Amino acid sequence: MTKLGEYLAKKSVNKSMVARKTGLSKARVNELTMTETAKLRLDEMYLIALSIDTDPCEMMKVLCEDLALADLDS
């Protein structure tokens, strides 16, 4: 399961409802939540956040918490 999948599961979100509200296909929503190699586009993340009444910035912070800038001082 992807970080998005975990995020939606914690919030008990129905993926079919997300697909319906965002206009994304059910297959795409399943891919984004189950396939680690799937690339979540910014527009998709924004629509998903709106569809579940979540602040897109808060959602992005959770999904990107492992990202960091390279340490160039080394």
From TrEMBL:
What keywords are assigned to this protein? DNA-binding
Keyword DNA-binding on this protein?
Answer: yes
Q: Does the keyword DNA-binding apply?
A: yes
Q: Which domain of life is it from?
A: Bacteria
| UniProt domain HTH cro/C1-type: residue ranges | 3-61
- InterPro entries for this protein: Cro/C1-type_HTH (IPR001387)
Q: What is this protein called?
A: DNA-binding protein
The organism's taxonomy opens as: Bacteria, Pseudomonadati, Bacteroidota, Sphingobacteriia, Sphingobacteriales
